[in-house]
Design brief:
The protein is built from six helices and no strands. Helix 1 packs across helix 2, helix 1 packs across helix 5 and helix 2 crosses helix 6.
């Protein structure tokens, strides 16, 4: 999430926190198979029982809605024009090492495009 937010912040005049808030559900969804145990624990802590990633994603989206945070990066004026560059920048960002799995530039590019167009949350 931060690797993309840093890259986007370097290219566009957008608030880092807003970028993270928009990116969060897409990053959680893309890492689903690698974080399911953690999401199951989190869903229990939050009182959602055994529902795991789906419940956590619903919760994130509900909070985002409540706070009027846009659903996509396209909603704040970004486009796919620099998608390749964004993927290349994100893979080189020091915070990329914090993702549960190492992503390639192409995977970061796809994650950016998902968040840009609102895909990949199902």
């Amino acid at each position: 999430m931060h690797a993309l937010a840093h890259s986007l912040g370097a290219l566009y005049d957008k608030h880092h926190g807003l970028l993270n808030a928009i990116l969060m559900p897409y990053v959680v969804a893309s890492n689903r198979e690698h974080i399911e145990d953690k999401m199951l624990r989190l869903s229990r802590y939050l009182g959602f029982g055994e529902s795991g990633t789906d419940a956590v994603l619903t919760w994130i989206l509900d909070i985002r809605n409540e706070l009027n945070i846009p659903h996509t990066l396209g909603d704040i004026g970004l486009s796919d024009q620099d998608a390749v560059k964004i993927g290349q920048m994100a893979v080189l960002d020091p915070s990329a090492g914090g993702n549960p799995v190492q992503l390639s530039a192409a995977q970061y590019q796809q994650l950016y495009l998902n968040a840009l167009h609102g895909n990949g949350l199902n």
